[in-house]
């Protein structure tokens, strides 16, 4: 049987997202981990993992928070994969509360008119609102929330950062009384612009069939000068999402005047976490979050 380009793309992205050894999820020293928290409506199967510093913040201060969004071609992936655990523990070890989320995924067995978009983005926005709602209990400052994600999670992280209420992509609820904007974003090798890229299985239609849908799915559609700062990370050996996607993104951000930094990692493949063998990225990512969420 001949596979369509959408099926091939979904398979590649999902395989890349799930690559790596299986492991028992655990908290790093000095970190507490609460698994499978309900952050969406009670009947939703998608849950979240919460990484927190083991001790409360010093008197008179609050922790900043970061939403972690996994990859998997919008079809697979999980909140507790090795990359997400690495990011969650890194952040919590350095004074952040991190919420790693599952979100609505594409189900190829569902009716043709049912797609995961924009519910997957709605779920990411609801995660931000959940942090607002629970800010006092978690000792976090709701005015200092960022996001980070890899691959499809990089795309959703970027969409979370650049879409506003006027774009019609904010969910009505739950927690609709709270905002869902973020102060900064880290995009790890996420696809950004789909009108000239590849067909996406999760959208159920090709670009030729639904150009407006692909435009709505593209981060570049929403860019303006008021968007928050970005850190973009991509490897030159990425054969799943071409590094040109990140270079294109950086040029688009430059054009509208958004603060950004792009780091191209020589020899790095797809789906690396913050400690690939090519370069330890923790100082870079922490410095970015410290600047924009801690004011350092």
Descriptive report:
- The structure is a single chain.
- The protein is α/β, with parallel strands linked by helices.
- It has a single domain, classed as Alpha/Beta hydrolase fold, catalytic domain (Rossmann fold).
- It is 30% helix and 18% strand.
- It has eight helices and eight strands; from the N terminus they run αβββαβααβαβαβαβα.
- The chain has an eight-stranded mixed sheet, with helices on both faces.
- Helix 3 (119-133) packs across helix 5 (152-162).
- The chain is globular, with a radius of gyration of 18 Å.
- The termini are far apart.
- Residues 1-8 and 14-22 have low confidence and may be disordered.
Helical stretch tally = 8
CATH class: Alpha Beta
Give the H and E element order: HEEEHEHHEHEHEHEH
Name the CATH homologous superfamily.
Alpha/Beta hydrolase fold, catalytic domain
How would you classify the quaternary structure?
single chain
Strand content: 15-25%
Biggest sheet strand line-up: 1-2-4-3-5-6-7-8
CATH architecture: 3-Layer(aba) Sandwich
Structural class: alpha/beta
- CATH domain topology: Rossmann fold
Sum up the overall morphology in one term: globular
Query: Which regions are unreliable across 5 or more consecutive residues at pLDDT < 50?
Result: 1-8, 14-22
* Beta strand count: 8
Q: Main beta sheet: strand number and arrangement?
A: 8 strands, mixed
The level of helicity is: 25-40%
**End-to-end span in angstroms?**
56 Å
């Amino acid at each position: 049987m001949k596979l369509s380009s959408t099926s091939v793309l979904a398979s590649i992205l999902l395989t890349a997202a799930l690559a790596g050894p299986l492991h028992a999820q655990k908290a790093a020293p000095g970190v507490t981990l609460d698994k499978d928290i309900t952050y969406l409506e009670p009947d939703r199967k998608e849950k979240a993992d919460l990484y927190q510093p083991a001790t409360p913040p010093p008197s008179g201060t609050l922790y900043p928070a970061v939403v972690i969004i996994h990859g998997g071609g919008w079809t697979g992936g999980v909140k507790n994969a090795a990359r997400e655990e690495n990011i969650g523990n890194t952040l919590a070890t350095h004074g952040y509360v991190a919420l790693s989320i599952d979100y609505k995924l594409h189900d190829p067995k569902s009716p043709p008119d049912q797609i995961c978009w924009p519910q997957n983005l709605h779920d990411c926005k609801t995660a931000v609102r959940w942090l607002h709602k629970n800010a006092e209990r978690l000792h976090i400052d709701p005015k200092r929330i960022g996001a980070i994600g890899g691959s499809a999670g990089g795309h959703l992280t970027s969409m979370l950062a650049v879409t506003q209420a006027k774009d019609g992509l904010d969910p009505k609820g739950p927690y609709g009384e709270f905002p869902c904007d973020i102060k900064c974003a880290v995009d790890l090798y996420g696809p950004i612009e789909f009108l000239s890229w590849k067909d996406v299985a999760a959208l159920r239609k090709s670009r030729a069939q639904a150009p407006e849908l692909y435009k709505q799915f593209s981060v570049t559609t929403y860019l303006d000068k008021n968007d928050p700062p970005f850190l973009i990370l991509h490897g030159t050996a990425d054969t799943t999402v071409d590094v040109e996607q990140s270079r294109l993104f950086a040029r688009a951000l430059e054009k509208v005047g958004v603060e950004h930094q792009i780091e191209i990692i020589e020899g790095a493949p797809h789906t690396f976490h913050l400690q690939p063998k090519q370069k330890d990225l923790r100082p870079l990512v922490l410095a970015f979050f410290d600047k924009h969420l801690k004011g350092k």
